[in-house]
Design a protein that fits this description.
Elements (H helix, E strand, L loop, with lengths): L6 H4 L3 E6 L2 E6 L4 H7 L23 E4 L6 E2 L10 E3 L3 H16 L7 E2 L3 E2 L6 E2 L4 H10 L5 H4 L15 E3 L9 H9 L5 E4 L6 E4 L15 H5 L5 E3 L4 E2 L4 E6 L8 E7 L2 E7 L11 H5 L14 E3 L20 E3 L2 H19 L4 E4 L6 H15 L4 E2 L7 H10 L17 E5 L3 H4 L1 H12 L3 E5 L12 E3 L6 H14 L5 H7 E2 L1 H7 L5 H8 L3 H13 L3 E5 L1 H4 L4 H14 L9 E4 L6 H6 L6 E2 L3 E2 L3 H11 L11 H8 L11 E5 L3 H4 L3 H10 L2 E6 L11 E4 L8 E4 L4 E5 L12 H11 L9 H15 L1 H4 L4 H7 L1 E3 L25 E2 L18 E6 L15 H6 L4 E4 L1 H6 L7 E5 L4 E8 L7 E5 L12 E4 L6 E2 L3 E7 L20
Parallel strand pairs: 1-5, 6-13, 19-20, 19-29, 21-22, 21-25, 22-23, 24-35, 25-26, 29-30, 30-31, 36-40, 37-39
Antiparallel strand pairs: 1-2, 3-4, 3-5, 7-8, 9-12, 10-11, 14-15, 15-16, 17-18, 17-31, 27-28, 32-33, 33-34, 36-43, 38-39, 38-43, 41-42
Helix pairs in contact: 3-4, 9-26, 10-26, 10-27, 11-20, 14-17, 14-18, 14-20, 17-18, 23-25
Family: In the C-terminal section; belongs to the prokaryotic molybdopterin-containing oxidoreductase family.
Pfam families: Fer2_4, Fer4_7, Molybdop_Fe4S4, Molybdopterin, Molydop_binding
Cofactor: [2Fe-2S] cluster
Length: 964
């Protein structure tokens, strides 16, 4: 949330009351239960859980309040001045014990959540019991069930194990409703309910469906909330004792949820959400149940070298379980010498432009920093990039140009303070599920969500208005909104006068973009455009959140320029509940970019061709540096296929944790480029599609096997700690990068634990002193998460920026007018459909991790394309049929599923599946400024029938599921 801005927020008011005969203080608005706990008085509680709305239904927390006839539930009764409370009076204890005994009497003989060997709060001996918190409180209150009461035990309901991740055993349910509140009020998924009356009352999923058949999205908030084990992760039924708990950060999307790994017998057995500033204990299905990829039998455990004479056939499907066909095992010394030696030889023979490196947004800041430093000082060029080029490069380009910073202005959960939330080009419930919960919570409190997207996604159920505009018409629609603001006198004149430049050019440009003129182009009625523009301009706070639907176009930079202009002319930036937030896709896209893992920028977005920055880094690193920006991801692929007489031909590459053979556009071209390299070094945890084309494969560490920092979409630098050791002879990525550097002649020596991670971080902090100088390694050890900009140890960080000025040359927003630029490729008679690509909830990026996670693969085991019912009918198709989608570059055969949120004339394909790789078809045309490919729009045919490629051999879920 936003940092406190007022003294009374920093210093809450207190009230005095009496607790068990002694005078104590409570904070204003604090419950009796919370105040008592702060003062060391433990009151039983079962339906209460911190973070959930208090419900007061179990009555195990009752206390005696002087002068009142009945006992009061302490969880939902606030303290008042002068109140006299007895938490341990004879009457209160008798009632507490009675409630606990009655609940315990209905429990099954064998429970599901044994708390054996665990210490109860304030206890010196372990609590013993089979029913979680209920057994714990029974033991502490000295409660045993009388035989006569046990004889009246209810008829026990049958178990429900239909869900891949969770077991439902309602014989252990005490109907505390914590799961209902977690599902309906926290996550706002509206799956779990409370049905029937009296003795027949029970917890149900949807319309009393089995959990596995319900609309459950497997966030697991219910299992984290359940006190007794009635809802449990299947991996941890029974004893809850583990060998250790290790705090870390979720390794998937950019929300940056803090987590705790539960480790037993050197395996992660479950994951809990921590009370981090981005998630406050919440997780999604990937964060909670996607952890066992780290233990998959296909993990790379020894260095590999390609066998002599084995060709790099880029059309050959990788066989991750049969790598012996193409590779042989090698020692680390041999593999490192070969990897670095050949790279060094290519550099010395063909010049500094002959090499390139792709770093990773899935690793740590320290790895990203060292990797880009290796390329710049060891390869001696700026040919370094990572997946930000494929997601938000155009957003960053527009933000740097317009507001002087590529990071977000406000954090996601600042939507709590917004009256209007404008979500465009993003499917947050699938791509950023925990961030979506904050939006849904805000909508329940009365905020207006506007969803602007060619596809109507799940967040549309919570939207006030849905703008389902025609794909590729973003600029037309956004300029129409700006036109209304200016035409109807809704401009924040003071803000524009004092804090913006080039407004007159913007005003002149949008004169021709009236809603009436743009309605036929974008497909949104003019009056709806006017209504949304008025609501945005007049809202107390209006916040824009966008995804790759904005950025992955040849006009992606223009799309983002329009969003910057919209918030500027309305004054909706630089204050709580307003501003600009490009949602980051991977766990460290923000941090990797900040650390300089991009070809035109040193760390902290200092241009490599700016003389002052260039001189500073030459002095800091002590080596001469290339003065020219390097090539980007797609440009590097072109240069790998350049003729031999091209002095900038890329001949060797080092790829750490990226999978361009799946993530790049026009995959046949990209795979051809990778297979044509003279030397390719791939560092990864699995035999990915890219590793299959390598000359050397270096086995690396998964996220739970390393200590390091990542920076989330909210500008929070967050620390993750190592929970496991890498398997076999795999090594930490940080160690491998340093070994390559040393063999290329760089005198690196980072001393300390965990491969010198603290020393690397401290060097990175110096390189990024203008952003994170106040975030020391020691501070991260204490606090886990600190928001930047943070310039001193006393600085709490700045969740909201641009409050008084913008970090531009003149301190003002630079408004840049944008005009309609059509997609590089439009539908025609031969290719009449539009292909839209993206992610889905259960899988992430290229699937190399999530498709090896048992639960995730079981939930979504096969590739499907989405089309609406009208298009299915027109083609004579039914859900589950096979179709062939063909573009001018490639084709896939894939099963089709019905999705009426997909517009007519469009087909949506996720890009996580090798056997139906969406990027075989996508267009590599680039945004000229952001150098980002046009993933979100190309022309395709859709034909009935075809022969799907067998699923890649990941060895987890079934591959013959039916598409629903």
């Amino acid at each position: 949330m936003n940092a406190p801005a007022k003294l009374n927020e920093l210093m809450p008011q207190t009230v005095e009351f009496t607790l068990d005969g002694r005078a104590v203080q409570a904070f204003e608005g604090e419950s009796i239960l919370q105040a008592a706990q702060r003062h060391g008085v433990e009151i039983p509680r079962l339906c209460y859980k911190e973070g959930l709305r208090p419900d007061g239904n179990c009555r195990s927390c009752v206390v005696e309040v002087k002068g009142e006839r009945v006992l009061a539930p302490s969880c939902c009764r606030n303290v008042t001045a002068g109140m006299e409370v007895e938490a341990n009076s004879e009457r209160a204890l008798k009632s507490q014990r009675m409630v606990v005994e009655m609940l315990l009497s209905d429990m099954p003989e064998a429970g599901y959540k044994w708390n054996d060997g665990q210490m109860a709060p304030g206890e010196r001996t372990p609590a013993v019991g089979q029913h979680g918190e209920l057994s714990d409180w029974a033991q502490r209150l000295g409660v045993e069930v009388r035989p006569a009461l046990a004889a009246l035990r209810r008829e026990q309901p049958a178990p429900d194990v239909s869900h891949p991740a969770m077991a439902v055993n309602l014989d252990a349910c005490i109907q505390c409703n914590r799961c209902v509140r977690a599902c309906r009020e926290e996550q706002v998924n509206d799956v779990i309910g409370y049905a029937m009356r009296g003795a027949d009352s029970k917890i149900v999923f949807d319309l009393d469906d089995p959990m596995g058949d319900s609309t459950c999205v497997a966030c697991g908030e219910c299992v984290q909330a359940c006190p007794t084990g009635a809802l449990m992760p299947k991996t941890q039924i029974g004893s809850q004792q583990v060998d250790r708990k290790v705090d870390s950060v979720c390794p998937f999307c950019g929300v940056g949820c803090l987590i705790t790994y539960n480790v037993k017998d050197e395996k992660i057995v479950s994951v809990d959400g921590r009370d981090g500033p981005a998630n406050h204990g919440r997780l999604c299905v990937k964060g909670r149940f996607g952890f066992d990829y780290a233990h998959h039998p296909q993990r790379l455990t020894v260095p590999l070298i390609r066998k002599p004479g084995v060709p790099k056939d880029f059309s050959d499907a990788p066989r991750p379980g049969d790598w012996q066909d193409a590779f042989r095992e090698a020692s680390w010394e041999e593999a490192l010498a070969f990897a670095a030696g050949k790279l060094k030889d290519l550099r010395d023979t063909h010049g500094n432009k002959a090499l390139a490196g792709f770093g990773s947004a899935k690793g740590s800041n320290e790895e990203a920093y060292l990797f880009q430093k290796l390329v710049r000082t060891g390869f001696r060029s700026n040919n370094v990039d990572h997946c930000t080029r494929l997601c938000h490069a155009s957003s960053v380009a527009a933000l740097l140009e317009g507001v002087g910073s590529g990071a977000v202005s406000n954090q996601v959960n600042d939507v709590e303070h917004a009256e209007l939330i404008f979500v465009i080009g993003s499917n947050p419930t699938a791509n950023h599920p925990v961030a979506a919960t904050w939006m849904k919570n805000a909508a329940k409190r009365g905020a207006k969500i506007v969803l602007a997207d060619p596809r109507i996604t799940d967040i549309g159920r919570h939207a006030w208005r849905t703008l389902q505009f025609k794909a590729d018409t973003d600029v037309a629609m956004l300029n129409a909104l700006i036109h209304v603001v200016i035409e109807e006198g809704l401009v924040d004149e003071a803000f524009v006068r004092d804090r913006a430049s080039n407004f007159e050019a913007l005003r002149e440009n949008v004169k021709g973009y009236s809603p009436e003129a743009m309605a036929p182009i974008c497909g949104i009625p003019a009056e709806t455009l006017r209504e949304v523009a008025r609501a945005f301009a007049t809202a107390k706070g209006a916040m824009v959140l966008w995804g790759m639907g904005i950025s992955q176009h040849v006009h992606g930079t223009d799309n983002a320029r329009c969003l910057i202009a919209l918030v500027t002319v309305t004054g909706q930036i630089g204050k709580p509940g307003s501003g600009l937030h490009p949602l980051r896709g991977q766990n460290n896209v923000q941090g990797a970019s900040d650390a300089g893992l991009i070809p035109m920028m040193f760390p902290n977005y200092q241009r490599v061709d700016e003389p002052g920055a260039h001189a500073w880094f030459e002095n800091f690193w002590g080596v001469p540096l290339d003065e020219k920006p390097g090539y980007t991801v797609v440009e590097i692929m072109h240069k790998a296929l350049a003729p031999d007489d091209d002095p900038h031909k890329i001949r060797g590459m080092y790829i750490m944790g990226e999978n361009p053979a799946m993530s790049d556009p026009d995959l046949n071209h990209a795979r051809h480029a990778l297979g044509s390299l003279e030397h390719l070094v791939v560092q990864d945890i699995f035999m990915t599609e890219t590793a299959w084309l390598a000359d050397v494969v270096l086995p690396a560490s998964a996220w739970p096997e390393k200590t390091g920092t990542v920076s989330n979409t909210d500008r929070m630098v967050q620390l993750g700690k190592r929970a496991l050791n890498p398997p076999g002879d795999a090594k930490p990525d940080l160690w491998i990068v340093q070994q390559i550097a040393q063999r290329m002649g760089l005198p690196w020596n980072y001393e300390g634990e965990e491969c010198g991670v603290a020393a690397v971080y401290d060097e990175m902090r110096q390189a990024m002193h203008a952003a994170i100088s106040g975030i020391s390694w020691e501070r991260l050890q204490r606090e886990s998460s600190v928001t930047y900009p943070c310039l001193s140890e006393e600085d709490p960080g700045q969740p909201t920026v641009f409050i008084d000025t913008f970090p531009t040359a003149d301190g003002r927003v630079k408004l840049v007018p944008a005009d309609i630029i059509p997609a590089d490729e439009r539908p025609d008679a031969q290719y009449p459909f539009v292909l839209i690509t993206g992610r889905q909830l259960e899988h992430w990026h290229t699937g190399s991790m999530t498709r090896r996670a048992t639960v995730l693969d079981a939930l979504e085991p096969m590739a499907t394309a989405s089309m609406n019912q009208g298009d299915l009918d027109a083609l004579g198709l039914q859900a589950g049929d096979v179709i062939t989608i063909r573009s001018r570059r490639g084709e896939v055969a894939i099963h089709v599923r019905r999705d009426d949120g997909t517009p007519a004339g469009a087909v949506f394909v996720p890009f996580a599946y090798y056997e139906a790789a969406a990027n075989l078809m996508t267009n590599a045309a680039l945004d000229p400024m952001g150098k980002i490919p046009e993933f979100k729009y190309c022309a395709v045919q859709v034909l009935p029938g075809g022969a799907p490629v067998p699923a890649a051999d990941y060895g987890t879920g079934a591959v013959n599921a039916v598409a629903h």
